[in-house]
């Protein structure tokens, strides 16, 4: 061995932008901390559950109906299958027409299911804010 065997180490600290990126990536892999929901968070979740469920179901139904309707139109215009194309288009109109009533029905069911808890939480939060 020679006397000139040296180990050199150069440390470069990450910039502020790199530090933020590193922390955001790290947070994706850390176990989630279970914390108790605040009343406002619980209220938002319940409201979202009621509205989003009804919206997602009605939009999905409308899209399925639109695709069936479009297939029927393609059968008529491109493939010259007139009678069966009209039948398929009429079948596609049905789910599109039912999307809005289904939305209202699911919204009504969600309000009935979660309404009491939403009103209770809202009342509690309003009383806390007003200082009663």
Describe this structure in words.
The structure is a single chain. Helix 2 (39-77) runs antiparallel to helix 3. It is built from 3 helices and no strands. The radius of gyration is 29 Å and the shape is flat. The protein has helices spanning 16-29, 39-77, 82-130. The termini are far apart. 77% of the residues lie in helices and 0% in strands. The protein has one domain (38-130). The longest helix has 49 residues, at 82-130. It is mainly α.
Helical proportion? over 70%
Write down the overall mean pLDDT: 91
Termini gap? 82 Å
Structural class: mainly alpha
| Low-pLDDT windows of residues | none
The outline comes out as flat
Number-wise, the strands total 0
Give the topology string: H per helix, E per strand: HHH
Total discrete domains: 1
- Beta content comes to under 5%
Task: Compile the SSE list and pairings.
Elements: H1 16-29, H2 39-77, H3 82-130
Helix pairs in contact: 2-3
Pick out its properties.
0% strand, mainly alpha, 132 residues
Quick structural summary:
77% of the residues lie in helices and 0% in strands. By secondary structure, the protein is an all-alpha fold. The chain has one domain.
